[in-house]
Design a protein that fits this description.
Number of strands: 6
Number of domains: 1
Radius of gyration: 16 Å
Shape: elongated
CATH class: Alpha Beta
Number of helices: 4
CATH architecture: Roll
Distance between the termini: 27 Å
Structural class: alpha+beta
CATH topology: Thiol Ester Dehydrase, Chain A
Amino acid sequence: MNEKVGQGLTDAVTGGLFHCRVYYEDTDLAGVVYYANYLKFIERARSEWVRGLGIDQVRLKAEAGLVFAVSRIEADYLSPARFDDALTVSTTPEALGGARMVLDQRVSRGETLCFRAKVTLVALGASGAPQRLPGVSPSLWRTLAAENANVRTVALDSSQVMR
């Protein structure tokens, strides 16, 4: 996994965009995107971002017993998206640690920002406790941070992890 992580790092950072369209099933009675569906949009984008880092989540679970879990989310609904809108979801790392990352995710329709979220992900072992990602060294996180000037590295505070 190490070489893939390093290889996909730059692509994931610079290409952290996910495109999707609003389908009828995504809307509510008012014809706008139902609030919970923005969480689905950013989940898909986040999964693609992690894949772009070269992290195979199925393999990570099978071989290391690790999964990613959302431990915190702050969300702002700014402008409604509607049926058939083409949306772009951006994912940008904001803070990185050995077992945790904070991501800034934004959903836009053209130049209009519709939704913004700060998402904290934690790598959890089989016991449910935070665990450092194997093959992801602090130097790899520093490389990622160097690609994005606003990224800071952080230490995991296990009191902030939902159990």
